[in-house]
Each structure stands twice: as structure tokens, then as C-alpha cells.
Amino acid sequence: ELPPPGESALVDAALSGITTGVVKDQSGQRWIYATRHLERVGWLFLRAVPYDQALAPARASFTQFVTISVIVLLAMAMLVLGLSRTVSKPLEQMAAKMRRMTDHMDKPGRLRETGAPEIRSVARAFNQLMDEREALDNLKSHFVSNVSHELRTPLTSINGSLKLLASGKTGELTDKANNMVHVALRNSEQLQRLISDLLDFNKVVAGELTVHPEPLSVAGMLKEAASATASYAEAHNVRIKMGSMPEGQVLADPHRVRQILDNFISNACKFAPAGTTVALSAEKDENERIRLIVADQGPGVPEHFLARLFQRFAQAESHSSRAKSGTGLGLAICQELAHLMGGEVGYYYRDGAHFWVALPQAKTR
Q1: Containing H/E element for 349?
Q2: For a tag site, which of 171, 255, 277, 290 has the least CB within 10 Å?
């Protein structure tokens, strides 16, 4: 016996003439149903299952499909990433070596000609470029060395003759002639310093620069450097004064320390405002080394140039007359000399530019 209309949603749906569909019973549960009418016997067959139960296999299949798809995509992504790294790693190495060559001017070595054909081609081209660069560097070094040696001999004779004239041993000179001799002498000494820088640079490149450390008095070194550069400072209308310094000795090569101090002092004199002073002082640093400091009252090194300050051929004012009076090698050579003596060089600004070289203390008995 059929239930009365409205009591069973499934029976009502089956008798409505709609053969398939989804209905919701009085408890709120959804059902999927299907009907089939047998006209010969007058029977109506009804099949119904809960909605969630009917869709469970489809949901499981969809979930499985999504999971497998995600796993396959992740595997493909890792494979692509691995392949891209395999291809890009040699390129990154090439870029790193090119940056080292540009930033430090050292020999970056050679790249291994392995990997994909394109990578091998790039590595081969890079290696050929390095071969040509080294050949040009060697040619330049030999040329500079030969020219510097050829210039040094006559310049030494010219400098000696000018010193004799300036000393008055060849006879008294008029004031005008004496001034001209002193100007010529200063310029010949400047040329000698430039030639010495070029020769030392060649020794640095060849690894032939040597030092002979010995105990040196801190006060004695600074006073000697101040006395030797007094005339140079006077020519730039700058006065050299001595600052505070600790008692003690450093272990260093006297000639090379003088070379570093002379370079610092000459730079300070060139860039210090006229009528100001260049101070020479010393102090102990946190590593128990003695730091020799040359300070001027100038504007200091531009912020954008600090990273290249001690690099070869680097000049902060490359288009100025002061830059043209140097080679851009002085500070780079100072850094090499300091490293050879177990020290280091540096710079800071505090009411003026301060260049310093830190050297190990000599052990006292």
C-alpha cells in the first residue's frame, strides 16, 4: 500500500512521471532515484540511493586524479629546475670569473669546456679571450718595464744635475733662475716617483716584489717622512705637523714603509686645501698592531669611489689636473706592500681624510 501524498518524497517523485532526479526527504537527506514502468504488468520499479553514497566513487576518482596530477607536475618542475641549473651553473661560473677579472684585475683561470654544445662554445670563446688578454698584459708589462728603465737612467742624471744647480755648488744663481731650477727639480722628482710606481707595479704583477723587515722606530719613521716631504708640502702651500704616537717599534721594511708614507703624504698635500695642515700620527689598533696615520683637512674620498679606492689605475678625480699628476697605482702598490709586511691599509673620514697603514709590532727582548 502506497503512503499518502506528501508523506514520502521518493514515492511522490516516482509517481510524478520524472524518471530520474534528486529529491530531499523530510529529514533533509538527499537521494538520487530512477524509475522504470512495466506497462504489461502495470508495475513501477523505483531505485534510490543516498546522494553522498552515489557520488563517493566519482569524488574518490577525482581526488586521485588531482593527487597524481600534482605529483606529476612537481616531478616535472623538479626535473626542469634540475636541467635549468645544469645549464645555468656554468654560465654563473663564467659571470663570477668575469666579475673577478673586472673587480680585482687578477687572473681568473680558465673554464672547463664541458656540458651542452652551447656551453662549450661560450667557455671556449671565454678562454680564448683570456689568452688574448694575458698576451696583451704581458706585452704591456714588458713595454712599460722597458720604457721605465730607459727613462730612469737619463732622468737620474737630470735630477742629479738639477740638485747640483739648486745647491749652488756650480755657482750662484739669480733668484729667477733659482726658482726655475727648483720647479724643474720638483717635476723631475715627480717623474721619478711615477717611474718607480710603474716598475713596482710590474714587480707586483710578476710576483717579484720583496720586502726585508726589521725593527723600526715609529717616531723615527714618521719624523723622517715628514722631513723628506716638507718641500713637497710647501710647494702645495700645506704644512706638515706631528701628532701623538705611542712608544715602540714595528717590524717592517724601512724602504717600503717610507714608500707607503710618501704616497699617503703626497696625496694629502695634493688634496688638502691651501693653508691647512697634514698631520702624521700613530696609534695601537685592536689587533695590537701599530697604525701609522696620515690625515688632511680636505673633503675626503667620494662615497661612490670607496669600493675602488685601493684598486689599480683607480682615480677618484680622473678628469682633474690632480689626477693627471699620478698613475692611479700608488694606493694599490701600498696595499700590496702592506700585505707583504703582514699588515694592511685603510681609510676613514673624520674631519678630513685619514689614510693608515697597520704594521705588526716588533717583539722586544
Answers
A1: strand 344-349
A2: 171
H helices, E strands: number in the chain = 9, 10
The Cα–Cα gap between 344 and 287 comes to 12
State the residue for C-alpha cell 669546456: 113
**How many beta carbons lie within 10 A of that of residue 282, not counting itself?**
22
Domain contains 364: no
Hey, how many other C-beta atoms are within 10 angstroms of the C-beta on 341? 22
Cα-based distances in Å from 35 to 13, 39, 55, 348: 9, 13, 19, 94
Any domain includes 267: yes
Distance CA 360, CA 345 (A): 12
How many domains does the structure of the chain reveal? 3
Q: Are residues 80 and 133 in the same domain?
A: no
Q: Are residues 55 and 140 both part of a single domain?
A: no
Residues 339 and 287 in one domain: yes
Domain span at 164: 117-206
151, amino acid identity: L
Indicate the residue among 33, 68, 102 that finishes a domain: 102
Q: What is the Cα–Cα distance from 355 to 346, expressed in whole angstroms?
A: 6
The answer to whether residue 310 sits within a structural domain is yes
Q: Comparing C-alpha atoms, which of 315, 318, 330 is closest to residue 194?
A: 330
Distance CA 114, CA 122 (A): 10
The structure's pTM equals 0.59
Q: Which of 65-74, 152-161, 265-274, 331-340 has the lowest mean pLDDT?
A: 152-161
Q: Is 90 helix (H, G, I), strand (E, B) or coil?
A: helix
Amino acid code (one letter) for 318: S
pLDDT in tens, 118-140: 778 888 887 888 888 888 877 87
